[in-house]
Amino acid sequence: MVKICCLGAGYVGGPTMAVIALKCPDVEVVVVDITSARINAWNSEQLPIYEPGLDDVVKESRGRNLFFSTDIEKHIGEADIVFVSVNTPTKTQGLGAGKAADLTYWECAARMIADVAKSDKIVVEKSTVPVKTAEAIEKILVHNSKGINFQILSNPEFLAEGTAIQDLFNPDRVLIGGRETPEGKKTVQTLKEVYAHWVPEDRILTTNLWSAELSKLAANAFLAQRISSVNAISALCEATGANVSEVAYAVGKDARIGPKFLNASVGFGGSCFQKDILNLVYICECNGLPEVAQYWKSVIQINDYQKSRFVNRVVSSMFNTVANKKIAMLGFAFKKDTGDTRETPAIDVCNGLLGDKANVCIYDPQVTEDQIERDLAMNKFDWDHPTHLQPMSPMAVKKQVTVSSDAYSATKDAHGVCILTEWDEFKTLDFTRIYEGMQKPAFVFDGRNVVNPEKLQQIGFIVYSIGKPLDAWMKDMPVVA
Ligand code: NAI
After folding, report:
1. Which sites bind NAD(+) (predicted)?
2. Distance of alpha carbon 194 from its chain centroid, rounded?
3. Is the whole model's pTM more than 0.80, yes or no?
4. Does domain 2-199 have CATH number 3.40.50.300?
């Protein structure tokens, strides 16, 4: 029986390994982590992450050929294939701070593998890492190998949170990068056989190590660039009276462009897009390509611009002040069907409104009060962020922020409602009831284009929808981002 050990039981390690275990009953999979609370949660009824379909997948294999453990040494020791799916955040200090990937966790993992391995291993990079990380990891492994043979592969993960199980069941492609030596090719084949249990052969792509590493960064940069492109157009739509949904539809009908990832919004979030682009920018700068670096940097600049534009639209529409006004925030996760709040635009919007002294009441179906408080008190790394979007001190957060358990209580007595996550349940809210409970004039600022602005205007709301023709109320109100 092939034995797999995965270091890192997070958003990637957990679901990916659960699906491998489900699809490969002849493979034993053990997911290990340094955080025992996370492992305990994976072994409990309440999994540590919310992901549609994940519960069923885990329940079917857990205890059969899927295990979660903190005994890292034992399971690395026994494994034939070691996946490394640890976090690779942006560096906050030192060389490359605010841009470069922090590979501390990765290096620790590699040293640990070298330390405890007693038999040959295939080490698989699952985390998103800078190009040439495999080479660095290989050096650590080889220089500490005690005669053991380590083969390294790059197998970046393309799942999207919220649809992770669907993406893993039916991936557009699985990418495996390896050395172009006979031994390297044999190693690629071994991993290919694992995925071939359920992924059609023509969707398993093999490349050299560096191409695989760079493809992941490039794919995320392209995806984020589409969002920033449509968001840039949304600002122009508001200025001219065009409707961004109509423009995006017409543009996306071009077969060369395609319709996906063209929804205008308050901005992208999540743990990957910004971090991976910053990393790409850093790699370009290090390789003497400042023009290329600036091109990708602008994707993030537009994203920051979109968030501050949204905040400024809220404030300017409400007579240029939100001080002491209750603003309901519907949604805090960075997108629907996940409880993940890493880099969510809601944090920046909330900080912007708090900076203008608003009282913010937040409702999100999957994000806990503790998590919201932690996020708002946290110091984000400081790169090209407008100075007025500064994080609040924990005390200020407590005073100005409340968390509700449903949308109706969150909006009660509010002056304005900001929709920041596209949860399906927000589409079917009773807005007449919400309107009746609010202060007048009542405002809705839809950062995800989930409501029908005309219908809400008929109820009596003043409505702002990103990239849609402006409500007469806002037409003469200039917004400086
Ligand atoms: P995460 O933060 O949810 O999970 C990482 C886990 O690794 C944590 O539980 C941490 O305790 C553990 N860990 C750190 N050092 C360890 C060590 N030495 N031994 C054992 N466990 C260790 O991170 P997430 O979201 O799963 O991301 C992991 C990697 O996958 C990142 O490089 C990310 O860029 C990439 N990725 C993430 C995607 C996502 O949607 N979240 C999608 C595709 C790639």
Report:
1. 8-13, 33, 38, 86-90, 127-128, 161, 272-275, 342
2. 27
3. yes
4. no
